[in-house]
Amino acid sequence: MNLKKYALSIDLGGTSVRIGVVNTSGALLLKKTCPTDADLGAGQIIENIYKLADDVIVKYPDYETVGMGSPGCIDSKQGKVLFATDNLPGWRGTELKKILEVKFRKPVYVQNDVNMMTFAESRIGSGKGYNDFICLTLGTGVGGGIIVNGVLYEGNQYYAGEMGHITINFSGPYCNCGGQGCLEAYIGTKALVSRVEAVLLKKEPTVMNDLIQRNNGMITPHLICQAAEMGDKAAMNILMDMGLYLGIGLGNIINAFSPQRIAIGGGIAQSWKWFYPSMMEAVHRQVLFGNERNTSIVAAGLGPDAGLIGAGLYALEQEEKYEK
After folding, report:
1. At what angle do helices 233-257 and 272-286 cross, to 10 degrees?
2. Strands (E), the chain
3. How far is Cα 150 from Cα 131, in angstroms, rounded to an integer?
4. DSSP 134
5. How does DSSP classify residue 292?
6. What is the arithmetic mean of pLDDT over 94-118?
7. How confident is the model at residue 86 (pLDDT cuts 50, 70, 90)?
8. How far apart, in whole angstroms, are the C-alpha atoms of residue 180 and residue 214?
9. Contact in structure between 22 and 312 (CB atoms under 8 Å)
10. What is the pLDDT of residue 269?
11. Integer distance in angstroms from the first to the last C-alpha of the chain?
12. What is the CA radius of gyration of the chain?
């Protein structure tokens, strides 16, 4: 393994763009961040990527390749955005590979952002050593990535991994996707915020009220976790209920894929100790034939840089295959 080889790595989010330099061991040698400016359209996003990349390239000019993780459904062969949500207006149809190869004059590899997080976890994180591995990220949405026989599984037309849209209650609440009773509609950020708002309307005693006021009226998953750590029963109940619904979804995933390991990441995963017991109780009820004993469920290990690291590692691995 040549540690002197490294990739320019791009991780696009709805609010920020992060660009880094990653070597073949997965070390993040440099990281810079700027706003996405998504409301200004795809052209401005690309311009922001260029400006940030120029700052990075000055320090690491001899990069071998470029890897990028982007939200949405990504045709990884063409490096094209097939679908993107409304928080990235005009992003759908963007031919990232073609555009970025003109700029950087290096091979460019583009993937879904959660796939890149999953790839990093599988190579150097909580999934290392497991050939059949699944990673979930809990945030505004609920995303997933799948490793089968050590290879990233993208499915037909690149739509595999939409774990947040497993239906757990056909007559449940409506989801952002237009469906009903999706896992995301129960454990995504919007669902958790709605639960807090319901508590506040009932005027139940809760420290969340004070925390929200200090946070300029904003309700966040971090705030719920903070309240639970302070002993707030309402916050604990919200997280325990979240664990129940997550466990139902995980049970379905285990029944379908029987992976060796599942890792859970994202901001809300910091409340692990509050939702883990109810999650595992639901998994035990849901999984067939005691198969849950064959799947370990753990917290993701690489933190918020996983997607950035994964994009670089993925590009370097693809280049290595090409060279062979």
Report:
1. 40
2. 6-12, 16-23, 28-35, 65-70, 73-75, 80-83, 108-112, 133-138, 142-148, 151-152, 261-265, 296-299
3. 4
4. E
5. G
6. 97
7. confident
8. 34
9. yes
10. 82
11. 14
12. 20
Does the pLDDT of residue 97 top 90, yes or no? yes
Closest CA to 50 of 73, 74, 64, 66: 66
Token code pair at residue 166: 């497993």
d(Cα 17, Cα 80) in Å, to the nearest integer? Answer: 18
Chain CA centroid to CA 71, Å: 9
The residues pairing with 151 across neighbouring beta strands, listed in sequence order, are: 148
Q: What's the token pair of residue 208?
A: 């969340």
Q: For the whole model, what pTM was predicted?
A: 0.93
Does residue 164 surpass a pLDDT of 60?
yes
Domains present along the chain, CATH in parentheses: 6-121+304-323 (3.30.420.40), 130-300 (3.30.420.40)
Return the pLDDT at 273.
92
User: What amino acid is encoded at 21 in this protein?
Assistant: V
**What does DSSP say about strands 80-83 and 261-265: parallel, antiparallel, or unpaired?**
unpaired
Q: How far apart are CA 76 and CA 113, in angstroms?
A: 11
Question: Which of 4-37 are b and which e, b meaning 16 or more Cβ less than 10 Å from the residue's Cβ?
Answer: ebbbbbbbbbeeebbbbbbbbebebeebeeeebe
User: Hey, what are 320's tokens?
Assistant: 């290595």
CA neighbor of 238 nearest in space, from 254, 257, 219: 219
Residues in the chain: 324
